[in-house]
Hints:
The structure holds two protein chains of two kinds.
Chain A: E1 14-23, E2 26-36, E3 41-45, H1 52-60, E4 67-72, E5 75-76, H2 79-82, E6 85-88, H3 100-110, H4 116-126, H5 139-151, E7 157-161, H6 169-182, E8 188-193, H7 196-199, E9 205-210, E10 213-219, H8 220-227, H9 231-238
Parallel strand pairs in A: 3-8, 3-9, 6-7, 7-8
Antiparallel strand pairs in A: 1-2, 1-4, 4-5, 9-10
Helix pairs in contact in A: 4-5, 5-6
Chain B: H1 2-43, H2 51-91, H3 95-98, H4 105-139, H5 143-155, H6 165-197, H7 202-229, H8 235-267
Helix pairs in contact in B: 1-2, 1-4, 2-4, 2-6, 4-5, 4-6, 4-8, 5-6, 6-7, 6-8, 7-8
Amino acid sequence: xxxxxxxxxxxPLLECRDLTKSFGATVALDxxxxxxxxxxxxxxLGPNGSGKxxxxxxxxxxxxxxxxxxxxxxxxxxxxxxxLVSYLPERPYFSRSMRVREMIAYFAxxxxxxxxxxxxxxxARLGVPEDAPCSALSKGTVEKVQLTLVMARHAPxxxxxxxxxxxxxxxxDFILQTVIRAxxxxxxxxxxxxxxxxxxxxxxxxxxxxxxxxxxxxPVAYVTQEKGTTLDAFFREEFRC
Amino acid sequence: MLGKLFVHEMRALVKPxxxxxxxxxxxxxxxxxxxxxADVMSDGFTYSSSPLASNGYIMLFMVTxxxxxxxxxxxxxxxxxxxxxxxRTMFTDEGYLTLTLPVPTGALVAAKFLAAYLIMxxxxxxxxxxxxxxxxxxxxxxxxxxxxxxLSLLSGTFGIMSNSEVASVALGTLSMLVGIxxxxxxxxxxxxxxxxxxxxxxxxxxxxxYVGISWLLSLxxxxxxxxxxxxxxxxxxxxxxxxxxxxxxxxxIAVGFILLTSYLVRAKVxxx
Lengths: 241, 272
């Protein structure tokens, strides 16, 4: 199935046209075309090595397309688009010597849409001491702090790369609740995962990727109503080994 | 935006740089005191009249000479720290934070370069001052000559020997300051080339690029120096011209590598 645009969509937040990324002879993403309007929670689904992370990296501006075009709110990837994208990579990116309050100050300094009060509030509810250096926090806590900072931005587009991968079920709930609470109708969230069951209830649309190619981009309702199954079951069927 | 990035960079560097400059200062002061003590001691005895005092004198001299080594080693260690921090914040996991900031890549690279340059310039000037102090004690009266010698060594030539000593020192200082910019820019550029070009062992690749480019540029400049020296000028004049040429070449290379780094980060380097 080709890309679809939901009815009533405004100016797309994200437009990819024939986006391709190759690493030597390996094609990580092959002529990927998609349009994401405001107000959608999109699941980027696929097994490991399907190109999910590569796509998010290119949108965030930390990897460069081999071919094709990519626009965020009409801007090519650059300072303007980066100001509109709130990106959570799958790995911790803070220096181990950095303290939590320094991380907040850093975000507040560079992102005009960062809500420092919201970040303080979320971290207080988490019980994270703001004077603690990153090295003193557990891996899970660092991930939560990072998610908190990313979601405390009022950005039009959120990119969350495997936010629930490798965390315990309680942390998964926290992460998903944080994402949902921060969601605003004028924003869109693109969330990559292969843990479909955990996110299925929150998604509006999904994109299925395999070997860098888009198999399907559709609303979740397409699966539940037309196929009469859950997205998780559909995913398992599609990617059965 | 450049100012904001520069402030953040300085904030991150000031503590480790302060510690290293403190170590250099301490070593330098110990060196000056040690050399002064050794100088005073050497007047009061001979080896045959007091072997114990003579051995003590030799040990004191060696310890203080080691302090002189620590001063320079501190500057080199600081350089390595700053360069590795550049790599860590740009091309490892921390790059995901740095490279997603809504700032032009040129400003990002320029801020890192300026902060590194400023700190390395302070470190180099401190090292020169401390060494001049130590050599001044040994020279008993000629600290200006010692400074000139150190500046000559720093500038990479022995060509600062014009008629005016003040002009020599000024040219030496300028050459040294440009040389620092050259080395920082070349290191940043090499790391970026390594991050772009190598699939694995990126730092090793960057070291290879740095050494290779340095060697190539030295070779080219040696050829230029020989051509200038054969041009019929006096030795002093030729050496002065060579120093000026090298300073200009280093400045051009520094600017070139900063632009190259900025371009590669903006358009080519992918984070793994």
